[in-house]
Each structure stands twice: as C-alpha cells, then as structure tokens.
Amino acid sequence: MIEWRWFSGWTDDELAPLLEQARALTRNFTAASGEMTLEAGWNQVHSVSALGREQPGPPSPTGLFERARGVLETFDFSDPRIVRWHFSSDTPLHGRTVLLELKSLAERLRFLCAVRVGDTRLEIGETCSVYGFGFETLEGHLEEGREWFLLRKHHDTGEVRFEIEASWRPGKFPNAWSRLGFALVGKRYQRAWHRLTHARLRELTWHHPEFAGLPEHQGTMAHSGHALEELGPVRIFAQRAPGRLKSHVEEEVEAVERGHWLTPVGLGVLAGMRSLSAPTLVSRRLAQSPDARTDPLSVALSKPWVPRVLEVLALGELVADKLPKTPARVKWVPMTGRIFMGTVAAASSVAGQTRRRVVLAAALGGLAAMASTWAFYSLRKLATGKLHVPALAAAFAEDALLAALASRLMPLVDDTPATG
Prior knowledge:
This protein is 40% helix and 21% strand. The protein is of the alpha+beta class.
C-alpha cells in the first residue's frame, strides 16, 4: 500500500482509488492489546493534557467537550505539517479507513500509509463522560500498532482532559534509506507531532470553534489540517511542552524500546555530578505515579515523605559542593557513594521489569556514575586550572547542566489544574 514522493503530495483524483484499495487491507499486526508490552518489543506512549473547564455536569451541546469532539471526528487535531489525514466523510467513524500523509524534511518527503478506526467509545456516566476512538495500522504502514485519542470530562469539576495512548513498533519500509531515516529522525517527528496535537486541539477548541466538525477541505475526499499560525514552527528535537497557555501538557510518559536504557544511564550520569540528584528524581517520580509497587526498593522510595527528605539532602549537597574543604569526588568514599546512588536510582527506574532488566539497569547506572564522576571532576579541574574560570562559576555551571539533564531525563507530573 505504501507510496512515497518528493516535493509534492497526492491529488483527490489520485487519493480516491488508493483509499478504495486501502479498504480491503487488513491490520499489519496480530497482537491483542494486552500483548503489546515493552517486554514484547512494543513502544508505549501516553500523555494527558487539560483542555480547560466548562459547566459541571454532563457535556453541554455547545461546551468545550462537544467542540473538542467535533475536532476529533474530523482528525483536525493532527498538525498537517507532519501528518495529514485523507478520508471520506460519508463513511461512519467506526470502521473508517483513512490515508495518512506522513511528511518530513520540511514537507519535502512524503509517505502515504493506511489506518482504520478500529473502535469508538462514547460513555455518559454519572460522574464522568468519555468520547474517543482508536485506530489500527494496516498492511504496508511504516509502523505497526494502535493509538487511542480520548476526551474525558469530570462532571463534578467540569474539567475536560485529552489523552493519547499508543503502542507501536517499526513496520514495513519501502527501501533501506527510508528505514535508516526513520531510525535517525522518526522518533523526533513522532514526538513533535505528539506535543503539537495537544497544543492544536486546545487552540482549535478555544479560539476556532467554527472549525469543529468541519474538514479542512471537502470534495471528492475530505482532508484534515486547518492552518493555525499560532502554533509556531515544527521543532523536531525532544523538548518539553511549549507552555501551559498553548498545550497544558501535564503528564507525558514515553517508553521507547530502543531508548529504554537511556534513563538508567542518564541517572548514573546525574549521580556522578551530584550523588543525591538521581535518587531524588526517581523518588519524586515514583511518589507521583499511581502504579502499585511490589519490590522493597521502589516501595520505600515511593513513600510521600521520602522525596521531601531527599530534596533537603540534595540541596545540602549543592551547598557542600562549593565549600573549599569538601573532598574531591574521585576520592574513594565520595566515588563509592556516587556509584551506589547511581546503581540504586537506575534499578528503581525500571522497577517492576524482569530481574535481568533490573540487574542490567543497575550495572549501567553504576558504570555511568563512575564515568561521570571522573569526567566532571576532570572538566572542573580543566575549567578552574587551565581556563582560569572561578571555582564558584564552574560549580554553578555544573548545577545548571544537572538541572537541564534532569528535566529532559524524567519530566515530572504537574498537578496544577487547568482554569481555561
């Protein structure tokens, strides 16, 4: 099914027969939802954003929930600079086949793949209303898997949230260079699209209600993608959400198999910079996560008071680092402590996984902590000795780098409610 082109897309006359062919395609995977796990090689992505509030109670016909529902039904939440949806609006949403135009390299390179809306969900309960749909990839797609888009309104507060849940793995590629390109930049484009989806849905529902329920173009084919200049340029590097006014992304959890070991290594690096930073970060994450804990280490770190204590100790370490009588971090005792902290933090970051994964993560964290200890000690010596940078300035520069790495490594949940 897959087609690709340089510099130009497909006309309606070209898309219509391709859509008809795609209706006969089957899914390109056989795994059930419960089988699509990290251990089985499936990447997991989950995010939640707060769109705002409307009046408490069931959704109002003209309220935020229904406006967002109209945007979802025409797939207009997808940024057309990365993914544009082509479909027939005459077919019911449940079972609807859609052609996805995937764009990269500033929209110069385009791929055409097929998906199908495998299921829809509409529940108006006593305390909560839910609407959404999930699509499944079809034969010839660059990826395999399914993705859910869900709106959820809490009747007691009137808050409306948007959720994305996906399980995926690389699929079929038309040639070797496209597979290599996907491995190099595919995840970055996925991440950019994922973040822009939250920002775009919020922008459409709050500032462009006239677009809700209307395709961007309606002819032989319907298309998603009303132009929104407010969202700014597409940035394909990994970054936090562009700000609460644009996206209100409160939680983002992304677990990708090929990058699964970056977190333990990163925690080891943090421990080599400041020994208590790594366990503090993991403890805060575990304390905020609703998942049940079974292993003693993660149970201990997830207790609500533990991250508070660790934060105080970590602040003390930041102060002690800058005192002239503090021993060098490469001395036996400080280095042993940093390796130990890196090992503990790395093992805790994969708590609940297989014993082999936990042991391997612990080893990676310990080795990374040792390497980081020597590396940053050497950099500090170079900066203060040969480059004549003041010791205090070098220490604060390392603190800034530590904070930046921590924010990228394990973003934390922000519980501040949306106010619209």
